[in-house]
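Z., the sequence and structure:
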Amino acid sequence: MSNLAVTEAPPGRVPLDALHRRLGARIVPFAGYDMPLHYPAGIVAEHLHTREKAGLFDVSHMGQAILAGAGAAQLLETLAPADLIELAPERTRYTQLLDDSGGILDDLMATRLPGRDERLFLVVNAATKVQDFALIARKLPQLALHVQQTRAMLALQGPRAVDALKGLLPGVEELSFMEWRALDYEGAGIYVTRSGYTGEDGFEISLPAAIAEGFALRLLDHPDVGPVGLGARDSLRLEAGLCLYGHDIDATTDPVDAGLVFSIGKRRRDEGGFPGFARIRAALDQGPARLRVGLAPQGKAPVREGAPILASDGRQIGRVTSGGFSPSLARPIAIGYVERALAEPGTSLTTELRGRPIELVVTKLPFVPHRYVHLRKDRT
């Protein structure tokens, strides 16, 4: 596990806590909760199982809320750079909450819910959810923010995920990447989005906490589904080149230097109207001073977060923000920020590991190609 910081305060428990313990999970405190780091098979086996079949993750620590009221999408655009006004019902979009200088306070998913009343379903990171929801409530007092405290969340990821899930929720196979549906499961309302944090095809499932264990057990009865903990979740997202908040992105980074320009709507790039627009517009026009890049350490030893990145003259030109071992590639990989002039793939840089130099070669992200399923050509 490369980048997961544990919490110091007494942790809470997710709805599936008892199940994790029965399955033999190693439990660690993370983002205010007791969470499974891995199960008896271990991180590498869980990682490869997800790439080959389907892994079931408990992500109930994430924050879920519904933002409701007239003009909800337009008003949320005053805090985030995505084009939310044009977001179609039952579509999900990735974006960020920004501070006044354009720094990233958190990244999140926003879904426009169907119906006559304007509502957005938000999913934010566990470690920042209290601050996120307080910010939204303070900045947008004319809207109602309903935090979903009685819902759990599961992620089913991997090439066999769709076959496993459609047996319980018929119709999920019709969803395209970043598409959402409300489905009925034994009288309970379940929200399903075809999305995830592994680079694989898969689904994120919001469901009432009271039925979460029974639903998880039915998924685990499928021969292709296995439980997966935080350790493999981190190595999978690292291979996919995806950002981890508090490590690869934070208030010192903006969406341009983080390589997240795709998440800034074209209209928003022209019109602005979100925090830090002047800084972000300048970075779009002139190029950022630094860029987030993939790094391939030459050798067998992983390079960890915080390691300095040095140019050929020994000058520090960046630092590693995530690093670890790639089970899929059987070699170490890392992500970091470097000066823009040295961000071209193939550039040779160095770092230090226990006092000895290690070569780092800049490489394109992702390390492992994404396998999202796009069934329709319309925008998400």
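The radius of gyration is 20 Å. The chain is about 20% helix and 35% strand.

Let me know what you think.
H.
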